[in-house]
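Please predict the structure of the following assembly.
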Amino acid sequence: MNVLKLKAVSGDNPNDNVKRETVDLGNGSDVVYVQRLIPFDQSWQWFHYLDKHIPWTRPTIRVFGKSFLQPRDTCYVATPGLTELTYSGYQPHAYSWDDYPPLKDILDVVHKALPGSSFNSLLLNRYNGGNDYVGWHSDDEKLYGPTPEIASLTLGCERDFVLKKKPCKKSSELLYGSEPANKKLKKGSHDADQHTFRLKHGSLLVMRGYTQRDWIHSVPKRAKADATRINLTFRRVF
Ligand SMILES: O=C(O)CCC(=O)C(=O)O
């Protein structure tokens, strides 16, 4: 599998000494990966709190006219008054940040790590083992604007996060939408149009610029991922 060797970028964030690495995807898209944003023990504390207290649901969604159970648990949190989120025919209830106070502490850490960011919504995902996944998609809903910054925090089991370049703007979802997100790249292969990040406990991955317009991403099924992973994706709704 092509797990990326990342280039460390110095001076990107002089306000802290957390090591961050940036992958330039070209044409105004890039990804920042911070492998150890949150200390190990603190990450487990937040993991256990969220696992227990978040009102997880597994909704029925519609993709290409077919209904199926979303292959992971989810919950949505947003600041009141924002445009409501709808994806795959599903409109999640927006819980408040005040309902789950540790989320505000986590948001604070993420904001400090990303100067200039101001996220007002959060989609949480819980993968109960390697059969849970998210298929190929991009977070290109209009409510996020043309160049959203999307910050994705991992707690718990390590999983692969795969980015693949869209073949062309309009046909990408047709080409990729029904493809199961469980393929691995051949060992040792190098493909500039596909990148895999192994997301560690306490890590933060940030997609920026035109990544949602030009790339799709997935967290594929992995037989060996036998424990739970909680993912928090912070976004700004305009
Ligand atoms: O779990 C992840 O790392 C990705 C989640 C994701 O792609 C999404 O919520 O849109």
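The domain at 7-12+19-235 is CATH 2.60.120.590 (Jelly Rolls). Residues 123, 125, 134, 139, 152, 161, 217, 219, 231, 233 surround 2-oxoglutaric acid (CB under 6 Å).
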